[in-house]
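Lecture notes, continued. The same structure-token format from the folding unit now serves as the input rather than the output. Read the line below as a description of shape only.
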């Protein structure tokens, strides 16, 4: 059942105060809840730490809790497990995957890598643990430039799996990294024409974007950065209105931090879809979080071999990003 569904199905008393129960279980089990900025607002609000992939990896490395509950997607929980092999890591729904991580199956990537024997591999954290075992270093969107620049200029590099972030880093570092052809389904769906139209309707707004977006979208942006960088930018800016090209969950933190400012999700090519919502992230909800804490399942497990090999490039990143 758990394998089929990805989570344990259980009826919950509608009168139950879920937030109180989650907090009680968390204390009882000495657990910490880590949430990504892309989770639903109510999940971000119950978490002990909310952040981007770099912040979450750092928080996972520092926690003293015995159990980590990851409100995010599978590769993030895997990263927490790799950093904390002796701790139990649980995820409300095992099916919370990532289109970007899925775009780079380990066997196909191994064939690709074999074509470039003199290249080192920089892997964006949005990748499976198996891919990380084939990497020299991991990076996030917050530290990708710094990580790439930590290699000598003449060192040839492969960047995987996000071609858009790789392209962007090539453009700001002058590198010519070989790129794996992967992308995020949320960040690829923005429409340049509709963004321009929207900006014409809101001439007082500023357009900001995550570097997982495609180049024509990034060319329109006043500021490009990780979710943390976008959040800091809107807090510091004198502007009162922003059009934001990244997953919609970040608007929760932006609105909390700047209640007097207006945040508009960037428009998609398909105006009928909820394309700014990552369908994987949104598999998490309060009910599943409660059941997962109660049963301490689904648990994210990895073989010792994968943990040992994948930890090396993650630790290198954490050392450089201290
Ligand atoms: S928003 Fe994109 S990169 Fe992030 S988890 Fe969802 S599919 Fe993956």
């Amino acid at each position: 059942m758990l394998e089929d569904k990805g989570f344990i199905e259980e009826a919950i008393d509608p009168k139950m105060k879920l937030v109180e129960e989650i907090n009680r279980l968390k204390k009882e089990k000495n657990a910490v809840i880590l949430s990504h900025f892309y989770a639903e607002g109510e999940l971000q609000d119950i978490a002990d730490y909310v952040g981007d992939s770099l912040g979450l990896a750092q928080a996972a490395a520092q926690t003293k809790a015995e159990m980590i509950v990851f409100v995010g997607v599978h590769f993030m929980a895997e990263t927490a497990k790799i950093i904390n092999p002796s701790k139990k890591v649980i995820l409300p729904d095992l099916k919370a995957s990532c289109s970007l991580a899925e775009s780079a199956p380990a066997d196909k990537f191994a064939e690709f890598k074999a074509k470039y024997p003199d290249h080192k591999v920089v892997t964006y954290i949005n990748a499976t643990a198996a891919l990380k075992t084939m990497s020299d270093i991991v990076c996030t969107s917050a530290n990708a430039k710094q990580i790439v620049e930590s290699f000598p200029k003449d060192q040839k590099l492969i960047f995987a799996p996000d071609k858009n972030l790789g392209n962007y880093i090539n453009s700001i570092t002058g590198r010519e990294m070989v790129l794996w052809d992967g992308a995020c389904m949320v960040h690829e769906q923005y429409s340049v024409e509709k963004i321009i139209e929207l900006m014409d309707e809101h001439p007082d707004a500023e357009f900001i974007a995550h570097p997982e977006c495609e180049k024509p979208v990034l060319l329109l942006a006043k500021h490009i950065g990780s979710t943390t960088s976008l959040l800091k930018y809107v807090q510091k800016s004198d502007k009162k209105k922003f059009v934001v090209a990244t997953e919609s969950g970040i608007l929760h933190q932006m609105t909390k931090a700047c209640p007097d400012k207006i945040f508009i999700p960037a428009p998609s090519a398909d105006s009928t879809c909820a394309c700014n919502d990552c369908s994987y992230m949104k598999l998490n909800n309060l009910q599943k979080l409660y059941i997962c804490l109660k049963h301490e399942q689904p648990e994210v497990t990895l073989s010792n071999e994968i943990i040992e090999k994948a930890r090396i490039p993650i630790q290198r990143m954490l050392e450089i990003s201290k």
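Point for the exam: The mean pLDDT is 96.
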